[in-house]
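pinning this so it doesn't scroll away 📌
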Amino acid sequence: MPAKPKLGQNFLVDTEAIQRIAASIGDLTGRTVVEIGPGRGAITAELAARAAHVVAIELDRDLAAGLRVQFMLDASAHVTVVPQDVLQFDFNATFAEAAERLLVVGNLPYGITSPILLKLAASHAALDRAVLMVQREVADRIVAQPGSRDYGLLSVTAQLYGPAQRLFTLPPRSFSPPPEVHSTVFRWRFAPRFAELNVEEASFLRLVRQCFHQKRKTLANNLRAAGIPPADVTAALAQAEIAPQARAEVAPIEALAALWRALEAKRATSPDEVDPSSE
């Protein structure tokens, strides 16, 4: 079945890469794996050979129908095909059925990578770990450390929900049709840090979005623009040991948490919201 460009379909055809992805998720004995965007089923088949159950979420109904036929012929595969947008998928319900935190594998469409990552983060209680393939530049941002040019809102948001590790990068020729970019596979273990950092999840994420709202502005200017009183901003930066003229891109997560605690003590955090997928 030919790819549909409007759905961002680039099918992985590199046999070695398919096997590496399936191996990277770890031991699948007795486990339930949710696969995002199985396409023609190349990775699905590898997962089905290792896992107790594979739930394959495919938006393209033509591909979903083909997958159903493909795996219906192998009763031992234990593959359930769900013709649905992953952004509407209920990970918690599948987790309840599995009685064990889920594993996730996916070749994410470039156009909606950020919304899918946020969906996974929001579903973290149901998830154990994920092995995901994204555009190389997106992976660079996800794993970036403070002080690097790639460190930003996506880096902090992803890493707040657990450590992310770059695994390997694939060239365009590994796909059919070849995309115009390289793709990177990374592993994400879900272990939220909010309790460790002593911050409240929703309020802290809101503050982080405000800090990175305009990357060329200083952190202080972004907070003042969000409506936080200048005196409170100055005092909180000093308490968090962040330089007055620092930009958010140099602040580790721990320093941002200290900033939140200092502002919360003054009840100075702002209710203004910023779209997290706009970075």
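📌 and the second one:
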Amino acid sequence: MPQRINEHGQQIGPDVPAWTPRAHPDQSPLTGQYAAVVRLDPAAHGDDLFAAFATDTSGAMWTYMPNGPFTERAVFDAFMTEAKVSTDPLFYAIINKATGRAEGFASYLRIDPAAGTIEVGFIAMSPLLQKTRVASEAIYLMMAHAMDDLGYRRYEWKCDNLNAPSKRAAGRYGFTAEGVFRQATMYKGRNRDMAWFSISDSEWPAIKAGFVAWLDPANFDADGVQRAALETRTM
């Protein structure tokens, strides 16, 4: 954004004309071609998610998460009960439309309607979703809801700086790396240096167009193999 000089000779940012606080995300389902993103409900999604997460036999998908792995159903059910009533993070189940089952979850968090900033996080994709169109479309649906439907100005992604797959995913999805907050927090008894990424509202239209082109069925062959990679369309 261009800078301006005020009457004191100081640089100031541009005005944001007619800005009003944005709405908080609600419980409306988000539906795409391959994925649906719906408010997390333990009764509706608990069995599916526990079974889907059990396919991660090593527990590696939880290394950089503050919770999990969930080997005991009672512990998982307690987490799901807390997640259902939480409003920040606001949890959603990711439904694979081909199977009709919940196979992962994600959330909006650090929701700031007044400033128009929102983060996507607590992303848990079971092995059934990893590296699939379903997972990528779910991320896109949450982006589009925040940026198009609700009109947020900034969409954030954060992860442990040691989490190389998450950082690659952020780049693939069109996020811009902003730096690392050293010793930002602790989890599971260890330090977390936090890598920050974002998408601004001015960048979103081009990134959205890239997602739409990538998700087009014509971009996949009969075996579901992509013809053009997502990062070639969103970067």
